[in-house]
Amino acid sequence: MKFSSSLLENAVNELAKLPGVGKKTALRFVLHLLKQDEIQSNQLADSIKRLRSEIQFCSKCFNISDHVLCKVCSSPARKKRAGLCR
Ligand SMILES: [Zn+2]
């Protein structure tokens, strides 16, 4: 696949590393990103960056979480049911 831009080629190659995404699909994604409003592309980039830098694993159940304890483990209702709250 020949590209007219090294930036385009780089984006296609990076997206094609995702499971189930070939170069043709990656190119379709990139062309879509170029067509859409820049704000949306920036939101996607930001969400991926934040996912990698801020994601945690719950210290109790090891589920993917935003905090040290996940929503399930930090739920007061769950603590009550488990007899942990008085
Ligand atoms: Zn948890």
The largest β sheet comes out as: 2 strands, antiparallel
H/E element order? HHHEEH
Tell me roughly what share of residues is in helical segments.
Answer: 40-55%
Mean pLDDT: 92
Oligomer: single chain
Bound molecules: zinc ion
Number of strands: 2
CATH topology of the largest domain: Helicase, Ruva Protein, domain 3
**N-C termini distance:** 65 Å
* Largest sheet: spatial strand order: 1-2
> Which secondary-structure class do the elements indicate?
mainly alpha
Kindly estimate the percentage of residues that lie in beta strands according to DSSP.
Answer: under 5%
**At CATH's second level, what is the architecture of the largest domain?**
Orthogonal Bundle
Unreliable residue runs: none
Gyration radius from CA atoms, angstroms: 20 Å
* Whole-number count of domains: 2
Task: Please count the helical segments.
Answer: 4
3D architecture notes:
It is a single chain. The protein is 53% helix and 5% strand. The model has no long low-confidence stretch (mean pLDDT 92). The chain is mostly helical. Strands 1-2 form a two-stranded antiparallel sheet. The chain has two domains: 1-54, Helicase, Ruva Protein, domain 3 (Orthogonal Bundle), CATH 1.10.8.420; 56-86, no CATH class. The chain has helices at 6-15, 23-35, 38-54, 76-81; strands spanning 56-57, 64-65. The chain contains four helices and two strands; from the N terminus they run H-H-H-E-E-H. Strand 1 and strand 2 form a beta hairpin. The chain is elongated. Helix 1 crosses helix 2.
